[in-house]
Every structure is written in C-alpha cells, then in structure tokens.
Amino acid sequence: MKAAHLVEHPKKVNEKKTVIQETKFIDILSKVATVVAILMYVSYISQIKNNLAGNYGAPLQPLVAALNCTLWCIYAYFKQQRDWPVFWANFPGIIFGLITFITCLH
C-alpha cells in the first residue's frame, strides 16, 4: 500500500509524452522554417544578377526586408534565451537584402 504513491498517474505520463512530442515537433519545425527562410533570401541572387546586368529592380522591398531581418536578429539575439532559429533564418536576409538594394541603385 505504501508503494502506491510511487506509481505515476496516467494523466501525468500522457502530459509528459505530449510535451516531448511537441518539443520534437517544434524542433523539426524550427529547422525546416530556418532552411526555407534562408532559401527565400538566397533567391535574391537572381535579382542581384539582373541588377548587375542593367535590368534594375525596385530597391524598396529588399531594403525593407533587410531592415526587418535586422530587427528580428536583434530580437532573437538579445532575448534572455537566445532564439537561434529566428536569428539564423533572418541573418541571410540582412546580407542579401542589402546587396540587392545596393545593386538596384543606378
């Protein structure tokens, strides 16, 4: 009878499993979202090539994207617990956004 208190309640076991599953899901989701965000900013390369060839694009969108990415990187880095997926997902946007902006100017 005294050992009965050592057995975990089934509800608590299910809650732990749910938390572990959610943590795994969030971890996978953060990695996939980071890769997709990086691909989004790497896609600026074609616009950069067009700009350098004299087919200039509009400079406002990549400038605003670079500013937005800068703000998200600052947010992710200076949080008490750094949010590395958010940081690395946005960091390429700063670089590619600025390069695209600069090459749009003529």
Automatic annotation (TrEMBL):
The keyword Transmembrane applies. It comes from the Bacteria. The lineage of its organism: Bacteria, Bacillati, Bacillota, Bacilli, Lactobacillales. The keyword Transmembrane applies. Keywords: Membrane, Transmembrane, Transmembrane helix. The chain crosses the membrane at residues 28-46, 58-78, 84-105. This is Integral membrane protein.
